[in-house]
Amino acid sequence: MELQVLGCSGGIGAGNRTTSLRLGDNVVIDAGTGLADLPLAELARIDHVFLTHAHLDHIACLPLLLDTVAPVRTTPVTVHASQSALDTLQRHIFNWQVWPDFTQIPHPDRGLLRYEVMERGDTFTLGELTLTALPVLHTVPAVAYRMDSGKASVVFSGDTDDHAPFWQAVAAVDNLQTLIIETAFADHEAALARASRHLTPQRLLAALGALPGGLDIRITHLKPFDHELIMRELTGQASAGLQLKRLLQGDVIRF
């Protein structure tokens, strides 16, 4: 299985794209601005969108995706998310004011958009791939995702504060290869990070100490103006043997 990083920044500008990861050719995790760089034919092949939560940087391109592929698709795109996130989409995005309700287009009986609830602990299987929603702590209801190819697993945190149930779930993954974990703010913005339920280098490193060694750990969702500082703080404070890399647009993780 291949996981392609379409976007992984905590902001825009200077080539930065917000969060979107592609599994194979028909599944994406979050629909941030990175999704917009795919060719039209590849956009049209997306059948499933799994959302970590409904904040704008993670859903920005979902409405535009549906509008773009509508003329060429004959089956709906299924959006998997918590009931809270789906309610937000219905109430605030696909409401005929901000954007058309694609559950009713092109016909109420044949909508291009289909919702499927996926709460913490739920699993969804596509061929050999199994996705499981894991608990995280953010300012709105949110989940992380475990992606299991049958040979190895990748865990993507989405947006989260330090959260014991998340770390317990990560530690329980018996075939964990890669952890993609957010660190949105540098240590000098610890108060803002706590208020917005994001991690800082100091708090992430404290939590990583409980995990086994040898993991491939990728850092995502860095704020653009501080991304170099965040990585310096992480690598400068990391214990010996802990290998941390910044997740980059264009990265491909095979598992």
TrEMBL record:
Residues 15-188 form the Metallo-beta-lactamase domain. This is cAMP phosphodiesterase class-II:metallo-beta-lactamase superfamily protein.
